[in-house]
Amino acid sequence: MSKRVALITGANRGIGFAAAGALLQLGFEVIVAGRDPVSVEAAAGKLGAVPLTVDVTRAEAVERARAFVEENFGRLEVLINNAGVLLDREARGLEVPLEAVEATFRVNVYGALRMSQAFAPLMVRQGYGRIVNVSSVMGSLAGAGQGYLAYRSSKAALNMVTRVLAAELSGTGVLVNAVHPGWVRTRMGGEAAPLSPEEGARALVWAATLPDDGPTGGFFQGEGEAIPW
């Protein structure tokens, strides 16, 4: 049997890179995707993975990525929508530039949806798939507080995308879940974060390797701990 194929956006560093390494160790064929071709090639070379340059905010780039995967693999078992930005770290909600909100949504929401729309049909065709949307507890309405309006709102929207796609793909063999990797020592998380990228990647790998009777349409951290919406 051929190896299962996983595509991870934003996998040239941080949590995505760690998840790529973990899935490679589990025997997956891994496609390391990212916007910067130099760092993507370097990361894929270090891991022994397949490099793929894609800007998830551009429809034509995602379509080229879909064509690349279909031509070279003919299928895709796992899509991890890990690419994300945090652009309003200091601004309060009443002051954050709308341009920053728009730019955040283009990556964190529209990018993940665009990738899912491109690759879910391949999964449906084969009757198996796992779509993992990397969200954040900061997108939980139950625990929302002040600040980070663009980032919080984008992750809340991504959670709704997860719920809708999971419902629409019910019964097809494709499971769709959102995961919170935790506060991780990455460029976004900063050096004060308590978790390593490898620890943060556990949630992604868990959702990517769910059994056929695993959950869908959920919001989880760690290895299956549910988070309030």
Describe the structure.
This protein is α/β, with parallel strands linked by helices and 229 residues long. It has one domain (5-226): Rossmann fold (3-Layer(aba) Sandwich). The protein is built from six helices and eight strands; from the N terminus they run βαβαβαβαβαβαββ. An eight-stranded mixed beta sheet has the order 3-2-1-4-5-6-7-8, sandwiched between helices. The longest helix has 29 residues, at 98-126. The mean pLDDT is 96.
What's this entry about, in short?
The chain has 229 residues and is of the alpha/beta class. It has helices at residues 14-25, 37-47, 59-72, 98-126, 149-168, 197-208, and strands spanning 5-9, 29-34, 50-53, 78-81, 129-134, 174-180, 219-221, 225-226. The chain has an eight-stranded mixed sheet with strand order 3-2-1-4-5-6-7-8, with helices on both faces.
- The share of residues in extended strands comes to 15-25%
CATH superfamily descriptor: NAD(P)-binding Rossmann-like Domain
What string gives the helices and strands in order? Answer: EHEHEHEHEHEHEE
Structural class: alpha/beta
Architecture (CATH level 2) name: 3-Layer(aba) Sandwich
Q: Could you tell me the radius of gyration in angstroms?
A: 16 Å
Provide the low-confidence segments as ranges: none
